[in-house]
Design the sequence.
């Protein structure tokens, strides 16, 4: 079982792994551990491979670029005991945080794409860590790339992911920034009037 694997190979991470509040955090952490221990390829269930990945084996690590930043962990390919993947595993405890009690940021920043991308940025030498360039290789939504058909299920995303994505769209963002400025000005005016 997954728990037995973690207990045997990464006993120092077992308590944290068992305590993750969201199952996808255990899945993400497990994928890093398996990739580190055995090397090979990790593919999300909603990815259909269109061509052989053998030519990518010349790199120590491969993943597609994510939008707007970083890389996607839906496809990762690495050599066994890869130093970078080892750094991802070693830093799981450091980044194990709950972000405002919201599932989406908690997962993304503790075990998900943003977490792994932060570890990637911290690597002194990224020469042999290949991030396939976007948008051609990005796995965002239902897309076809040169390597994959992505069915775009995003099954673990919760209500908060839709809210965050909606807030991030240009028109919505301008609206909420405007409302924030108006509230700040109103609060400032109210504070000044109270002093008089």
Sequence:
């Amino acid at each position: 079982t997954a728990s037995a694997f973690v207990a045997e190979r990464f006993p120092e991470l077992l308590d944290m792994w068992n305590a993750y509040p969201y199952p996808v955090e255990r899945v993400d952490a497990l994928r890093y551990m398996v990739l580190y221990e055995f090397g090979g390829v990790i593919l999300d269930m909603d990815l259909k491979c269109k061509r052989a990945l053998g030519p990518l084996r010349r790199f120590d690590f491969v993943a597609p670029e994510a939008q707007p930043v970083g890389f996607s962990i839906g496809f990762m390919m690495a050599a066994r005991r890869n130093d970078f993947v080892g750094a991802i595993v070693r830093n799981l405890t450091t980044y194990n945080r709950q972000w405002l009690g919201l599932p989406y940021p908690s997962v993304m920043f503790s075990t998900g794409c943003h977490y792994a991308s932060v570890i990637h940025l911290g690597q002194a030498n990224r020469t042999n860590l290949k991030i396939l360039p976007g948008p051609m290789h990005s796995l965002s939504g239902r897309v076809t790339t040169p390597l994959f058909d992505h069915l775009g299920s995003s099954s673990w995303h919760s209500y908060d992911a839709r809210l965050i994505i909606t807030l991030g769209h240009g028109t919505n963002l301008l609206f909420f920034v405007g409302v924030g400025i108006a509230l700040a000005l109103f609060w400032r005016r109210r504070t000044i009037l109270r002093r008089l």
The mean pLDDT is 86.
